[in-house]
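Hi there. Long-time user, first ticket. I'm pasting a complex I've been working with (about 536 residues overall). I'd like to know whether the download I got is complete or cut off, because the file seemed smaller than I expected. Thanks.
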Amino acid sequence: MKKILLVEDDSEYRTLLSKKLKTLGYFIYEAKSGQEGLQYLKSSVIDLILLDLVMLKMDGLKFYQFYKKISQNKTPILILSNIVLSDKDKISKKKYIVDYIIKSNINLDSLTERIKTFIN
Amino acid sequence: MATLLKNKLAPLIDIFAKASIGDFSSDVPIAKKEDEFTPVFIGVQVMLEVIREQISALKEADLRKSEFLSMAAHELRTPLGKMSWRLETLLEENSQSLQITVKNELQIIYQNLLRNIELVNDLLSVSRVELGQTVENPRYTNIVAVIKSILKLIENEANKDKLSLSLQTNNLPKNFKLYIDPIHFSQVMQNLVSNAVKYNRRNGTIKIKVWKTENYLHISIADTGIGIAKKDQKKIFRKFFRGSNVSESKAATSVGLGLVMVKSYIKMWAGKIRFNSNLDKGTVFNLDIPLNISYT
Amino acid sequence: MSNKVILGKNDIIFNIYQGDQTTTTVANVVSKTRNIIEILRRKKQPVYILADLSKMGKSNFGSRLESVEALKTMRYNKVALFGANLFVKHLANFIIIASGRQNKIKYCNSKDEAIKWLLY
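Hi, the file is complete. Here it is re-exported in full:
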């Protein structure tokens, strides 16, 4: 069973997405902040990270900085955010980041399709 | 005497030369011994310092505008995105457990929501271009491929009204690529093509032609739709404008920002957009995009 | 180091500038000076202002703008400036010209010279 780490501080987004992914047979670790996400990363084997950027306690970019320093086998990161940073293209090309998707511009079905391609 | 003067003024000439290309970073050397030239040298130095301060203030203001736009985007999109996913999940539930009428209502709400998300995106695009905040990421883009993928996207919608779609590329070389931001180009084409679909009549046609001349790429999008009334033609590029002959139901699904956004991007590329339209006959939009878009 | 506004000998208003100047630091001096001007005018006394620039640091664009506005709009008989280095002396001259009140404002080479000119 593939394991996904969902780092998202909005509880509604977290619930909607994890519910959908669970019905598709994935195991979901839910982290409310970048900090929590790092804990899961250190203690478990993760196949894909879904990362929000705007979070109150340690935002996505800080998480990414810490993530680069720890763990040898690098789990791919899919950024899921509603903010479009001016250097979005630069971020999308960063190491281990596989895509930058705007949550409100994609429906759940299409998103789960993309997740399927990245997790394999 | 002339040489003495020339030597004396030389440092200033150097400063002016740099200033002419926007480099205000050098300081004016000011002699400790006061003479008639001192006020001039000090004056130029003061001017440089004022310019530096002004530039810095402008950059700061620009940055704040940029950050505001990003945060606004985030704030507007979040509740919309959540409602959208929630509805999507609900609508996918087994119809037996969800009464038909409720499902229909939800379907309508869902469509409205998608329109709203479109509105936010269009509004942000237009605002960004107007504030000079748009980031263009030009790449060598196979524009025919982009147009083909857009036609594929609207296939279902077009089939509902039995519309026939055609794409002609005339003299365009096989792997022709235009140095342009593919996302913005795609947005422009998507807008014009979906208008051609939306305002068309049953069994109508959409003909897209792409060709190039020495300095320009030309694209024409022709539909056999409701057309644009003469009195409205001056206003179609205005924000939130909807044609007077658009039915209420169609008006509800359109935001009125698409053409504004299209025009903004085309203007940014130093291109031209023209159209010809006749009521109840159809409309043709013509785009002329320079092959060498100059990015300043 | 902050600026000081003092009503001194011969009822001259002393503006002592210390350190780097901004719009705020100059505005403070101006408002205090205006208050004293009010008092002197009510007593039907002449208004002489003496600005000591000897301890002044850098001045930004805003501070200069504030100074020019003040020199344009305050009601005084004379303003004398002294104590500046070469650069500030000429800068002060630009400000005097910008204020349009060259006949009422003068840069003097020493404090004594300044006081003499004010009271003469």
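A couple of notes from our side: Helices of chain C lie at 23-42, 61-73, 86-99, 111-119. The longest strand of chain C covers residues 48-59.
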